[in-house]
Amino acid sequence: MKHATFDFLTTPDAFEDAQSYLPALDLTLLDSTAERAVDLLLSPGKRTAFFINAHCCNVMHRDRTYMTAVRCADVLLPDGIGIALAGRMTGQRLAGNLNGTDLIPALLARAAKTGKAVYLFGGTPGTADAAAATLIRRIPHLRVVGTRDGFDGAQDTDAVIADINASGADIVLVALGVPLQEIWIHRNAHRIDAQLVTGVGAALDFLAGNVSRAPLWLRRARSEWIWRLAQEPRRLARRYLAGNFTFMARAGATVLRRVSGASVARRALDITVAGFACVALAPVLALTALAIKADSQGPVLFRQTRIGQNGRPFTIYKFRSMAQDAEARRAALLATSDREGVCFKSKSDPRITKVGKVIRRLSIDELPQILNVLRGEMAIVGPRPALPDEVAAYPARAMGRLAVKPGITGLWQVSGRADIAFDQMIDMDLTYARSRTILLDLMLIALTFRAVVSGRGAH
């Protein structure tokens, strides 16, 4: 099961210099889908699990006890768009948003099928009971073996733990709010017999009907915080407005301090060139789209999964230059490749449309990748991004080309493109990865215009 290390989010000496303390964690967050997260949480063994969002990271900025509790947790689950965006700043893309309100029902549904029992602890008086009633109604055969509120019911810690252990619960959901629930779990988990103890924040309030959930489309956009802010503006304005801004600002500042000057300059070059191209080439982009629509059926843009830096997949954008069923016909044409090695290229590819031949000859089909550059998935200069099946067939030395971001242009593109053999292409890409500089990038951008005019290897 994958994990993502957000080493730019906190520092070990954070509390020696509070001003340099930055949000989030130098900890390993679970990078997984909800289904696989449930597999891990219910696997044999005792564990504690905490959800981590932008607010949690901001709390760690001022609460050392909470940070210690988080550091000692067995599983950390990324929650919310703030964590996802902070990850993207360093090129990390999380597989899923593992928020407690969605994950807990899935966890308990699986627990019910395996006969595991749950104990609900927290919330205002009556909230845990109402949440239990909802869960029992929604999840067949679920056993809720105990409930306790987070006010008077939480005053005597020894009594709480004795009640949990006497219930025989396998799972304990603690809803005392951040940071109290994590600190409570950290201090007491070793005394609890349950297999899994996790903090669930406002999940019991949602289940009890105390707070209504955002519409599904807003939740899928990872923007449920907007809904909650609208419901409780006085209480949540500081957390979501000031807090989210503070979190992103600190995360961004940290990344800028830690990356090299060359990396910042290269990214600035990418954004500048891509932004200028969007404006200057707008007429070309529009005319190309109209020509593709008039020439053949199908969408104007072609989307395809490619492999980017460090082996991360992403969706590449190109103007469609082939028939709509091109992907389905690819396997039957592999034997006609003009190039030896892994990458398929054919001058007489029957899938290419009339307009496709023209835009390929002029490299116009690659222009939509400007979007990939602006999104940070590609650079202006770099190795061409390969297909997943091509990367799977790479010899070991070829994997070195994945050490840098793929690009729209590069050494291979200005040296003959498809006329260059696979082994030569790999040599060029490895050479670039070892010796790239801003000056080299500028030279390759300039040489790209000559390569486009000559059309050598463009098919």
UniProtKB/TrEMBL annotation:
CDD domains: Glyco_transf_WecG_TagA. Keywords: Exopolysaccharide synthesis. GO terms for biological process: polysaccharide biosynthetic process. Residues 266-453 form the Bacterial sugar transferase domain. One of its GO terms (molecular function) is phosphotransferase activity, for other substituted phosphate groups. The keyword tRNA-binding does not apply. It comes from the Bacteria. The keyword Ion transport does not apply. Belongs to the bacterial sugar transferase family. PANTHER family: COLANIC BIOSYNTHESIS UDP-GLUCOSE LIPID CARRIER TRANSFERASE, SLL5057 PROTEIN. This is Polymer biosynthesis protein, WecB/TagA/CpsF family.
